[in-house]
């Protein structure tokens, strides 16, 4: 594999003993280390309250992080040299003197400084201010995890306060969906080939579906999730980001602002939903008890941390329109939910059927011309077309051309976090969300949030199904259905 190892860096990880550090960030750094992608002199400084000293922290890392590393298992030599990179600072966010301690610990450490805030959003501003109080904000990069705020107002408040301390080019707002390999490949497919461009528009596309379905419930995050819901947790960020990648105009280059400018144009062109029409274009659901792959699972309202009369949605389906020449009138159906029948994330582009079929009615079947970009599991891009069935007569059947990444490219696959962390160290902003994009996304979802907060409750659906029937009815009004309903 060709790659450019990073230049030297000091990567400071706030929330060093948190869930995200354990499951995603430290494993991703380990993978980058093992693959030789990190500068030899680069250091990781974990910051947390719980462990007393470096030895204690390294014990925690050995006990908790190893289990989340590489499906292929841990390479003990690589692991031990990875652990050598880690320093630890015990820090109480409430104590200004602890930041002096952090500054002193970083004094002789090399390279670009990255501060990764793997903490709750309520700590973003206090941490940034404390960093500035000891001048650690200069020549540094800061990474903010989602959720960044609860609505437009609170997100603006965080962005304003962080913006007083860090310039926009120093701020990396992470949306891990943008780091997934097939999302990158969608960009390559669209902008590296002339083939799709003429077809990628209203004249040839009938509708687009974007689904992120999960089998998992809220796990140990009931408290957080009950105050958040699927619209904030998944739609405002991941789904709208995917939508903007699918629908954007070809950018002038892949530099940060060219890509982000084009995504922003899409977000600003989303048709505002009239509050009176919300029930026609937005469905919310909440899972009840059910069975997933033979195992009974409890209702959302009985999960730990969730209010028994909770009106929080665990499922959302939306019909979205984009008001520009390329997409006017093409419905984009977005859907996400917890405790659904399957774990799948995919983008389905349904092209129009032939205007007249000389080959009989089977050539007019929906789904004959279709591109499916599967983000997970089994990352693939498939182009479905019609072909003649062997034998007598002209009977058509759907076949597909397959781009199975793991077969074409045997090595070099990277987890989203690994790619994004390397981008931060390299200083590449294209896959991070700019403030104006985030604002546009909040502005668009707010009328739905407000309407749902003011009235009604989510529709129930049994865990292990595809959500409330209303989500199917919404598509039926457009003479279409969700992909899994076709057969
Ligand atoms: C996170 C959400 O951003 O994305 C979670 O907060 C969700 O609720 C997760 O489970 C899904 O990510 P992935 O990569 O597992 O599909």
From TrEMBL:
Provide the binding site for NADP(+).
Answer: 49, 92-93, 146
Q: Name one GO cellular component term.
A: cytosol
Known EC number:
1.1.1.49
First-tier enzyme category under EC:
oxidoreductase
Q: Which UniProt keywords apply?
A: Carbohydrate metabolism, Glucose metabolism, NADP, Oxidoreductase
Q: Which residues form the active site?
A: 238 (proton acceptor)
Q: Which residues form the Glucose-6-phosphate dehydrogenase NAD-binding domain?
A: 12-185
Q: Which GO terms describe its molecular function?
A: glucose-6-phosphate dehydrogenase activity; NADP binding
Residues forming the Glucose-6-phosphate dehydrogenase C-terminal domain are 187-482
For this protein, what reaction is catalysed?
D-glucose 6-phosphate + NADP(+) = 6-phospho-D-glucono-1,5-lactone + NADPH + H(+)
Q: Name one GO biological process term.
A: glucose metabolic process
Task: Please report which protein family the annotation says this sequence is part of.
Answer: Belongs to the glucose-6-phosphate dehydrogenase family.
The protein's name: Glucose-6-phosphate 1-dehydrogenase
**Species of provenance:** Paraburkholderia franconis
Q: Which gene encodes it?
A: zwf
């Amino acid at each position: 594999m060709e790659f450019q190892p990073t230049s030297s860096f000091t990567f400071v990880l706030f929330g060093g003993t948190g869930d995200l550090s354990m499951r995603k960030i430290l494993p991703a750094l380990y993978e980058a280390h093992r693959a030789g992608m990190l500068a030899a002199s680069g250091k990781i400084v974990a910051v947390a309250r719980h462990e007393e000293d470096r030895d204690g922290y390294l014990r925690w890392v050995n006990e908790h992080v190893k289990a989340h590393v590489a499906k292929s298992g841990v390479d003990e030599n690589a692991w031990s040299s990875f652990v050598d990179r880690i320093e630890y600072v015990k820090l109480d966010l409430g104590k200004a003197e602890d930041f002096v301690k952090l500054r002193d610990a970083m004094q002789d450490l090399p390279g670009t400084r990255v501060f990764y805030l793997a903490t709750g959003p309520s700590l973003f501003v206090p941490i940034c201010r404390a960093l500035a109080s000891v001048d650690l904000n200069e020549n540094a990069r800061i990474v903010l995890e989602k959720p960044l705020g609860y609505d437009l107002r609170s997100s603006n408040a965080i962005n304003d306060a962080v913006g007083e301390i860090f310039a926009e080019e120093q701020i990396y707002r992470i949306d891990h969906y943008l780091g997934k390999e097939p999302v990158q490949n969608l960009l390559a497919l669209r902008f590296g080939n002339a083939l799709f461009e003429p077809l990628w528009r209203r004249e040839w596309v009938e509708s687009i579906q974007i689904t992120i379905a999960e089998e998992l419930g809220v796990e140990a995050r009931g408290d957080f999730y009950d105050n958040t819901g699927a619209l904030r947790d998944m739609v405002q960020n991941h789904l709208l980001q995917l939508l903007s990648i699918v629908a954007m105009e070809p950018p002038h280059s892949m530099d940060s602002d060219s890509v982000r400018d084009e995504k922003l144009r899409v977000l600003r062109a989303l048709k505002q939903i009239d509050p009176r029409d919300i029930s026609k274009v937005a469905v919310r659901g909440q899972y009840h008890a059910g069975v997933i792959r033979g195992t009974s699972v409890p209702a959302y309202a009985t999960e730990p941390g969730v209010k028994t009369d909770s009106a929080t949605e665990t499922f959302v389906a939306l019909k979205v329109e984009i008001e520009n020449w390329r997409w006017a009138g093409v419905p984009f159906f977005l859907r996400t939910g917890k405790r659904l029948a399957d774990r799948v994330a995919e983008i389905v582009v349904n092209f129009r059927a032939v205007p007249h079929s000389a080959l009989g009615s089977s050539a007019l079947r929906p789904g004959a011309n279709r591109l499916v970009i599967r983000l997970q599991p089994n990352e693939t891009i498939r182009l479905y077309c019609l072909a003649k069935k062997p034998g007598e007569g002209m009977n058509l059947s759907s076949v597909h051309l397959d781009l199975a990444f793991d077969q074409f490219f045997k090595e070099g696959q990277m987890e989203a976090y690994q790619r994004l962390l390397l981008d931060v160290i390299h200083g590449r902003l294209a896959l991070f969300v700019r403030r104006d994009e985030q604002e546009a996304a909040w502005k668009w979802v707010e009328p739905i949030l407000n309407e749902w907060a003011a009235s009604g409750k989510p529709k129930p659906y049994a865990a292990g199904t595809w959500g409330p029937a209303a989500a199917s009815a919404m598509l039926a009004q457009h003479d279409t259905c969700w992909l899994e309903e076709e057969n």
